[in-house]
């Protein structure tokens, strides 16, 4: 399988991704726990059907020490007992925000309020930014049919 457009060789795409990657670095350096960040990126990528990002973020999470059990259960986090209440709140917010077009009223107040119980204002800002950013990456990769499976942790920096 070959991507419809080589995002890694296209100069304009390179400029766009330079800015997205800078935003990603700001989020990575935030106080939002790294494990939570990876779980959110994995869940949004699963929902969006983005194989490239699902591959990348499961491998990055495993490389950072995340357990295989938790990674296997991200898609079924509601039934899994291996996630904290804070992680569950972040995953619920990620799901609701990723599926925003499916809900006439957007993200329900109770979902936001639950996240706000576990995260301070800066962490919530990071969570919102992270969800928006991973959804942007997912959409780009799905549009161009970016192949998945060859990612190795650290290969982009």
Structural class of the secondary structure composition? mainly alpha
Number of contiguous helices: 7
Count of DSSP E strands? 0
Query: For the CA atoms, what is the radius of gyration?
Result: 15 Å
Strand count, sense and barrel status of the largest sheet are: none
**Uncertain runs:** none
What proportion of the residues form beta strands (DSSP E)? under 5%
- Report the order of strands and helices: HHHHHHH
Determine the mean pLDDT.
95
The N- and C-terminal alpha carbons lie at a distance of 24 Å
Secondary structure: helix percent: 55-70%
Structure, described:
The chain has about 160 residues and is mostly helical. The protein is about 65% helix and about 0% strand. It is built from seven helices and no strands. The longest helix has 24 residues, at about 120-145. It is globular and about 45 Å long. The mean pLDDT is about 95.
Task: Describe the protein's topology.
Layout: H1 11-28, H2 34-48, H3 51-63, H4 68-73, H5 85-98, H6 109-118, H7 121-144
Helix pairs in contact: 1-7, 2-3, 2-5, 2-7, 5-6, 5-7
Q: What attributes does this structure have?
A:
globular; 157 residues; 0% strand; mainly alpha; single chain
Concise account of the structure shown:
The protein is built from 7 helices and no strands. By secondary structure, it is mostly helical.
